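**Paired protein data**
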Amino acid sequence: MHKIDIKFIIFLFFFSTIVLFILYSYGFIVTHIIPINSNFVLSVNSGDNLNSILRLLKEKGLKGNLFIIKLYTKLFYKNLLIKIGSYQVNEYSTYWSIIQDIDKGIGIPFKLTIPPGLSLEEIAELLNSKNILSKEEFYNILGQQDFVNSSFPENLVLILNPEILLYWKKFKIELNEKKYEGFFYPETYTYAKGVSPKIMLLQPIQQFFKTLCKFPISDLSPLEIYKKIIIASLIEEEAMVDSEKPIIASVIYNRLNKKMRLELCPTVEYILPSHKKKLTLDDLNIKSPYNTYINSGLPPTPICNPSFESLKAAFFPAKTDYLFYVAKGDGTHYFSKTYSEHLKYKNYSNFY
């Protein structure tokens, strides 16, 4: 009886080993060797898991038993992270190559370029025109109080410099409903298709603060920093040539120091429903805190999202005595120290 038990145990051991080997071989062959043999884009959305992905792949031609494939995946890919996005599958793709792409987030990228000088409204229109995000969705996300600190999907890694996050927390407490104006850094961004809209909108803000931290801000209060961002937005709208930006910055600071109204046309254009080539007297008399023709000081928020050169000019203005400037007509300006000199240059300008 004892000998029979030993033989049975030995038999069971070898039988189990053979079964496991067969299952392993089956799993390896199905997941690593047999191609999907189909061309399509696999969309992985928020809430998708291994089960839903397996069902989608099965519909598209994945061979083999789903239970065994899932078991094999769980056994040999314990730390799999399902990253949302769009993934290209071709006739040579295997299940394992697809899973590795999903784990690494190697989806089909698309690029979004935010040009310097766009306002939030114009960025919303840009996203809407490219069918990336509707204007309603854009403002809905920005209106959420937990936008920056919201809980992102666990399978997405978000690394924010603590210093950057600290500044943002200070800003968002103090600002009004236009708090994001000025904080979308103009740049070309690459995203995986299907990326979370929150993460997509967060990236330009992260990039803005990373850029902002290159300037001497450690000794400034959030309000002082914010004023410089407002000034940078004014410079962005006023200057067409980077070399003139520090000079235009000096004019803005000089006028502010002398308690003179800035009288900048872009601050009026910001409140108009559409852009005008030339403003009327009625436009210049519109009652709004943004109208620097009738209000002293800075507008309450930035009027666009400024470039690096405009930010740099706001932090490092040229040292001049200029109080006025007028466009020449070629993208550059005449600068003057007195009003009489300014009037003389206005007569030279092709715009007046």
